[in-house]
Amino acid sequence: MPLVAGIDSSTQSCKVVVCDADTGDVVRTGAAAHPPGTEVHPRHWWAALERAIDAAGGLSDVAAMAVGGQQHGMVCLDESGAVVREALLWNDLRSAPDAADLVAELPGGAAAWAAACGSVPVASFTVTKLRWLARAEPQHAARTAAVCLPHDWLTWQLAGAPSIRTLCTDRGDASGTGYWSPATGAYLPELLELAFGAEPVLPRVLAPNSTAGETSTGAVLAAGSGDNAAAALGLDARPGDGVVSIGTSGVICAVSAAPTADASGLVAGFADATGGFLPLACTLNAAPVLDAVGRLLGVDHDELARLALSAPPGADGLVLVPYFEGERTPNLPDATGAIHGAQLANTTPAHLARAAVEGVLCGLADGMDALRRCAVPIERVLLVGGGARSSAVQAIAADILGVPVAVPVPDEYVARGAARQAAWVLAGTDTPPEWARRLGGSERPPHGPESGSAVRARYRAAAGRTLSRPR
């Protein structure tokens, strides 16, 4: 029974899952926390990985492994491979003005960006962080000889970090940089030059079932991928499946046979971890919104869900626009959250809890609409992430999203997808191994589509009146 390991290096923590390579059955797991913040020195990821490996009982008996990591993060290395400065994470929004400048500076603007790299750059993308670095910290930009992503850096460390010219990545993570084209499978040096004024060494983009090297214990290293592509692989998402993840951010993505190019910027035209495409819309405000409202009401997650389900659909007109950390879909980095429609009758804990759940789901439903406008079919949704464990989210999601919803068995799907990729490389086959799909229970069809439409209409009206934080 060969064993494989999948590593999920996310914003908040590192998780290690060891699986049977043939069946996908989980043998053991481990986890360790990452420090908070929107900029983190990569050494903390490595320290967390070491702790997570120890918690999982070590990896000396593992034949292959792969890393799934948070997308977009900017890791700058000097010629010797030393980290130049703390990595800026995807949720660091300081480069929002730089994103706007880059869109304006490219002839053809947003449409030209979308045609070139499948996406219109926003503050989360690596390309905008490189422009910020060149503008705000020219001394660090001058030292930067190579740029990679969090999962690239960890894979490189596992391989012994021989030199910056051995860095490698995959299609899924490269597609989130803003200077690689999913449609052509090539880097776009002209966009990198526009943003950074130089062309540092970039990781070699490997095919999905290629080998990235070996660890010191002789385990084969797969290419790994970005977290969303790894999760889709772990879920065995197929055409027609939309994956909604409610975690630190909210994500709606779907497997597509063709690349997308959305000039509105709402849909990022990413690649997946199998050779296809994974168009994606992301909201900045998801599970932390539910956490915040729970703290405000002084209740835990279970009680928040009970309260939400005790209120009627639409919360009697109370609407929560959850732009607590700005927003990416739509692109409003300076927006703030707001409550609309408050009356004496609907200012109760139950109504506020319901409005919070509906607000998070409405933002994701807008992202799903944007995917459909790009001709991406979504016939049902797989609901995952920490926020998806809420009974209220599960009960309300189908009505707001307007399609049947299936809730997979709770699992570390990013790590599971990375492990499945490792098993794929180990097997040397053209397609990933067939691991059992882990769907729990039956699909929930929309039972109140009319009320769901009404909730969304009120939400869109309220979101149109959103506020910006003072500068």
Q: Can you give a write-up of this model?
A:
The structure is a single chain. By secondary structure, the chain is an alpha/beta fold. The chain is 35% helix and 23% strand. The strands form 8 sheets. Strands 1, 2, 3, 5, 13, 14 and 15 form a 7-stranded mixed sheet that branches. A hairpin with a 3-residue loop joins strand 16 (240-246) and strand 17 (250-254). The longest helix has 25 residues, at 349-373. The protein is globular, with a radius of gyration of 21 Å. The model has no long low-confidence stretch (mean pLDDT 94).
Sheet with most strands: 7 strands, mixed
- What is the rounded Rg? 21 Å
- Class per helix and strand makeup: alpha/beta
Counting DSSP H or I runs of 4 or more residues, the number of helices is 15
Residue fraction in strands: 15-25%
What form results from the Cα inertia axes?
globular
**Which regions contain 5 or more consecutive residues with pLDDT less than 50?**
none
Give the overall average pLDDT. 94
Helix-residue proportion: 25-40%
Distance separating the two termini: 59 Å
Number of strands: 26
